[in-house]
Amino acid sequence: MSEKIAGEDGKLDLLKWAVVAAIVAGAIYANSYFATESLLVRTLGLLVTAGVAGWIGAQTIRGRAFVNLCLDARVEIRKVVWPTRQETTQTTIVVLIVIFIVAFILWLLDWGLNSVISSMIG
């Protein structure tokens, strides 16, 4: 019984994705057709259309999985221990020092190789 329901959901999902594709295609066409209209009106129309298409897409199996992924990612981001201002400043200073050291080494290498090649060429 559950296989039959899953199969019907799959067919409905395909129909929903077709509707989403039609909405997106219609929005693209409408945006170019109404090119003389105000940019604000066209932008608001595209945002509303994207919201409707996104809502329809979220009603599918893959859409629900994507929404759940985004919600889980939000939970994980809240678990991150962000560095303090002092740690960020210290790390930035260390990175800048290393960058300058490597740049100086590369400059010396370039200068040395240029001198060797110039003396060989004449």
Element-by-element helix/strand order: HHHH
Number of helices: 4
Low-confidence stretches: none
Number of strands: 0
Any key phrases for this structure?
122 residues; mainly alpha; single chain
Please write out the topology.
Elements: H1 2-33, H2 39-58, H3 61-79, H4 85-121
Report a brief summary of the structure.
The chain has 122 residues and is mostly helical. It is 89% helix and 0% strand.
Question: Can you offer a commentary on this structure?
Answer:
This protein is mainly alpha-helical and 122 residues long. It has two domains: 1-80; 83-122. It is built from four helices and no strands. The protein has helices at 2-33, 39-58, 61-79, 85-121. 2% of the residues are buried.
